[in-house]
Write a structure and sequence with these properties.
This protein is of the alpha/beta class and 837 residues long. The chain has 25 helices and 36 strands.
Length: 837
């Protein structure tokens, strides 16, 4: 019997008998195919949700935003008609009950909110298909109608519409008429970059807390306005894996509550009941942990919810049918069926446990706010940090609903992030203070605490992310409670531009990515700009390395010089200082050769098969969205005949592409004639095999040490995975020594905190500038294996090598990792604009 025939007999016939209503159209009656027969184009997925919302008074559909490619982002509210009529009052009551909104809550309006996210990874196509089945089941079955009396289900049918469209369009174009289950054929081999990621090739499932992407930014606005009790995140994994559902694996973050753990177990048992009845394979408590805070399960957990990941075997390899190792065939219909089963089971538990969920959720926010679980109770971010960085942090706090303010306390004892030592610091009313005594106490502490407690080294993701390190801010964590006056006033943007009609020059301190965007805008407007290669003082104000110097003398041919500089400064709200003299209080003067003219770079990025799509996307997003600078994108194969004509900067993102001898010679010759090469992470491995690039890859002692004979090993075979972590750095912060006199170090402190996500290590450059280095036993935050720690001692992190008239820049750690390492985006601006002038 075919999948379509089975579907025609009724979905989940052995579990959930269907009682259809005339008002709701089944997916197979609306679409040109039966659900599970093939993949549905995104526009038809949208059409189906609009059709059902128009036909039913139990569905309200909103468009909460648009993707980069202008596809709608939808959220469907499914409940009883009465609940939806009172939805605004129910929402307000919910927020009042947990202390997020003011006012007295009414228990009669208590409802349980269940948010379901389908398809955050676009090529996990069965997820978005299942969203239609879940919607139909909720509206068509009497027992679901009972559950919807006290439950409001929120369905996001395609959390990554651009990726989903990329995958489904490709698949429908290459699939054979009859599904070919052979895993080796074309329809099971999705081309680069795949549909997993969004337009900029970001993994949206790692972006919940950081919200670097437009989809995440718009979604979290909704999430924080509703704060659901339960969040189910639907995924797919490798096609030969059984279904995974909660409870999750260790490590759990230490701030997760016993209640959250218990309800995960209860959810899992209910799912297992249905899977057992059907004889479907599944597993729990393995692989997927609850530590990294920016997932679709952990982010809700740190917002008081029960967050869960559901993983169906399939993924992009699954197609509509694929042969499994056990000789069975996994169909798209099977995958959709399994996901709809866990979706309905989730709603069932939510409804049945409504009263307990309500009480526990309220207690979570009230108790955590009254008694924060972590060691540190307040975080002080000094007000004299660069304002753009401070504003960027405040914007992120706002997006996450985290409260902040100021205090009148004269001094605070606490942990200094920059030095790693306990100290006493004076606090004034310009310092930003974030108290842990607030409704979102746990999320606050998770994102800001200096170091996360990792109770199990076998983790699924990075183990360190503390925001003061990521943003490069002077900050302190105090174990004492600090009273906070809510709000922080940056003041209305103003400068003295109006008082200077035609100044001698404009000076802009180089402190953040905002100034890099400003510089890029000036260069694109054909404004000549210089950078100070030595600190100087003028009119009593001190200017540091990298200060932008925009002189009238350099721009005499530009009739719109003043108007252009002022316009861009105001649009970006950049701190700019006009001066009427070029003579400094001490050397150098503004006319000195210490003021280096900055070229207007023509930038090229390599992206395509062989590059890591995430990293290529991070560079692409940085250029187009963070600093709004044009980029030319080439395929890796273009390196084989690279001439670099009309290109000044060539960026090699991480990847496994090979640079052969002819490509290496071409790139080397191009650099020698004045080009700038920026190599990131794993791309350096290809460069290190050619002498022209002067890189030396360091092999770890562990790689050269033979394994002991079997009878001399103390550990069992079953412990081999745990033993392997001694050679691993899954993601930890390292304190890097910076030469801030070098253009690659302009604007940074003497130390830079780098997020290291692997053990690749390179020796110090013998004929170059070792700008960022690790010494003996470097300070680190997060899990680092013992052998891995030894491997990275005395190694290069950021280096520059001059080659003829050009430069080669080596970034061993990717400073643009996931787009949230704010100080890394600033460092990359140095590589792009400052080095080589």
């Amino acid at each position: 019997m075919s999948a379509v025939q089975r579907f025609a007999q009724g979905l989940f016939v052995c579990l959930f008998p269907l009682f259809l209503t005339a008002q709701v159209t089944a997916p197979g009656d609306f679409l040109p195919h039966q659900l599970g027969e093939t993949f549905t184009p995104h526009h038809l997925l949208v059409d189906y949700f609009e059709e059902v919302a128009d036909a039913s008074n139990q569905v309200q559909l909103i468009e909460y935003g648009r993707s980069n490619e202008q596809r709608p982002l939808l959220l469907a509210f499914v409940s009883s008609a009465e609940n939806l009529r009172n939805l605004a009052a129910i929402q307000e009551n919910h927020l009042r009950s947990i202390g997020v909104a003011e006012g007295q809550p009414d228990p009669a309006l208590d409802r349980t909110f269940v948010w379901m996210s389908f398809g955050v990874h676009g090529n996990e196509g069965a997820c978005s298909e299942a969203s239609m089945g879940a919607l139909y089941e909720l509206l068509s079955r009497p027992e679901c109608q009972e559950w919807l009396e006290n439950t409001i289900v929120m369905i996001d049918p395609a959390a990554n519409p651009d990726g989903y469209s990329r995958y489904t369009h490709w698949y429908r174009g290459v699939a054979t008429k009859n599904s070919d289950p052979n895993p080796a054929v074309r329809e099971h081999r999705e081309p680069w970059p795949g549909g997993r990621t969004n337009h900029y090739m970001f993994d949206l499932n790692r972006d919940w807390a950081w919200q670097t992407q437009i989809e995440s930014q718009q979604r979290i606005v909704q999430y924080q306005q509703w704060l659901p009790h339960i969040h189910a995140d639907f995924h797919e994994q490798w096609y030969d894996n059984p279904y995974y559902f909660a409870p999750a694996a260790q490590p759990y973050h230490s701030y997760l509550t016993e209640w959250q753990s218990e309800l995960q177990v209860e959810m899992g048992k209910n799912h297992a009941r249905y899977f057992d009845q059907n004889g479907w394979l599944y597993f729990t408590r393995e692989v997927f942990d609850l530590l990294y805070p920016s997932y679709g399960d952990t982010y809700p957990m740190f917002n008081g919810a029960i967050g869960m990941t559901y993983e169906q075997g399939g993924h992009s390899r699954g197609g509509t049918a694929i042969l499994l190792p056990n000789t069975d065939t996994l169909t798209l219909y099977d995958r959709v069926t399994h996901h709809v089963t866990t979706a309905i089971s989730t709603v069932e538990v939510a409804s049945n446990r409504h009263e307990a969920i309500q009480q526990q959720f309220k207690d979570y926010f009230i108790k955590q706010a009254a008694n924060p679980p972590g060691r540190y109770k307040a975080y002080v971010i000094k007000g004299d940090n660069p304002q753009p960085k401070l504003k960027a942090l405040v914007e992120l706090l706002d997006r996450n609903g985290i409260e902040y303010g100021t205090t009148a306390v004269g001094s605070v004892s606490g942990f200094a992030y920059q030095t790693g030592k306990n100290t006493t610091v004076k606090v004034n009313n310009r310092d930003l203070v974030i108290s842990a005594y607030q409704p979102r106490s746990v999320l606050t502490q998770v994102l800001l605490e200096p170091e996360t407690e990792v109770i199990d080294s076998l983790t699924y993701d990075i183990t360190a992310w503390s925001l003061p390190y990521a943003y490069g801010l002077e900050a302190y964590a105090s174990a004492s409670r600090v009273d906070v006056k809510p709000g922080y006033d940056f003041g209305v943007y103003k400068n003295e531009l109006g008082a200077y009609t035609e100044p001698y020059a404009y000076l802009v301190p180089w402190t953040s990515t905002l100034e890099a965007r400003f510089l890029g805008a000036l260069l694109q407007a054909d404004i000549q700009v210089r950078a100070a290669s030595k600190p100087f003082q003028l009119n009593g104000k001190q200017y540091d390395y990298g200060t932008l110097v925009v002189t009238r003398a350099d721009n005499r041919k530009n009739d719109d010089f003043d108007a252009t500089v002022k316009r861009i400064a105001r649009e970006l709200e950049v701190g700019i200082f006009p001066v009427n003299t070029g003579m400094s209080d001490d050397a150098p003067d503004l006319g000195s050769d210490r003021m280096k003219l900055i070229d207007k770079p023509r930038v090229a990025l390599i992206a395509g098969e062989g590059t890591y799509s995430n990293v290529a996307g991070q560079v692409w997003h940085y250029l187009e969205q963070r600093i709004d600078y044009p980029v030319h994108i080439f395929y890796p194969d273009d390196l084989k005949r690279w001439s670099g004509e009309d290109i000044d900067v060539l960026i090699l993102p991480e990847g496994y592409y090979d640079i052969d001898s002819s490509s290496a010679r071409a790139i080397s010759d191009w650099v020698r004639s004045g080009g700038k090469l920026i190599g990131i992470g794993a791309a350096l491995a290809s460069l290190s095999s050619h002498d022209a690039f002067g890189l030396s890859y360091m092999v770890s002692d562990a790689d050269n040490t033979p394994a002991p004979p079997h009878d001399e090993q103390d550990n069992a075979y079953s412990d081999q995975e745990r033993r392997s972590v001694t050679n691993a750095i899954p993601g930890a912060i390292f304190e890097v020594k910076i030469d801030r006199t070098h253009p690659l170090g302009y604007g940074l402190d003497d130390t830079y905190f780098s997020l290291k996500t692997g053990t690749s290590a390179y020796g110090l450059l013998k004929d170059g500038w070792n700008v960022g280095t690790l010494g003996a036993n470097p300070r680190s935050i997060g899990f680092v294996g013992d052998s891995a720690r030894k491997q990275v001692q005395h190694t290069l992190v950021h280096g520059v090598r001059e080659h003829g008239s050009g430069t080669m820049i080596y970034l061993v750690d990717n400073p643009l990792y996931r787009g949230f390492w704010e100080n890394g985006t600033f460092l990359f601006g140095n590589a792009l604009f400052m080095v080589g002038n």
